[in-house]
Amino acid sequence: MEDEDESNPDDANSDPETVDEIDHENPEGSVEFVQPEDGAEVTNPVAFEAEVEGLELEPAEEEDPEDGTGHLHVIVDQGCVEPGYVIPQDEGYHHLGDGESEIELDLEPGEYDLCLQASDGIHNAYGLTDESTIEVLEEDDSESENESENESADDENGDTNGNDTE
Hints:
By secondary structure, the protein is mainly beta. The chain has a single domain (about 25-155), classed as Immunoglobulins (Immunoglobulin-like), CATH 2.60.40.10. The protein is about 10% helix and about 35% strand. The chain is built from 1 helix and 9 strands; from the N terminus they run βββββββββα. The strands form 2 sheets. Strands 2, 4, 5, 6, 8 and 9 form a 6-stranded mixed β-sheet that branches. A 3-stranded antiparallel β-sheet has the order 1-3-7, with no helix packed on it. The radius of gyration is 21 Å and the shape is elongated. It starts with about 30 loop residues before the first strand and ends in a 10-residue tail after the last helix.
């Protein structure tokens, strides 16, 4: 069957809804992941930091958003949302709804495709996006060994981590 209907009723909750009409302009500018860098290997919690130009970050609101304002989303393994669609409130969509540009997430070990995306105050997706890939590593004994080695070196240099008993 070559002419299958592409819509799947089972996917209704995962598809972003379309916006009938947006009465404000898509801002010119950019969003970019500052941290973690593309291709980074990280451990939990994963700290995300964004740089934003040409958009004033404001908390999400339930009323008419002003031109040039919005908030960010870190989207994990869902892909960026096409402008003109609402960014879902589903798993994998992390809303920075207070107007912040940083968030920490706990992710299972593995590789992730990320999208940083701006939207207006009522979650209508803008075309301002940045994409990257990271790998979240399991915290293992090698990290503990490195910390022990660093503490030993500090002790040899007279640094007792502020535990002086004078």
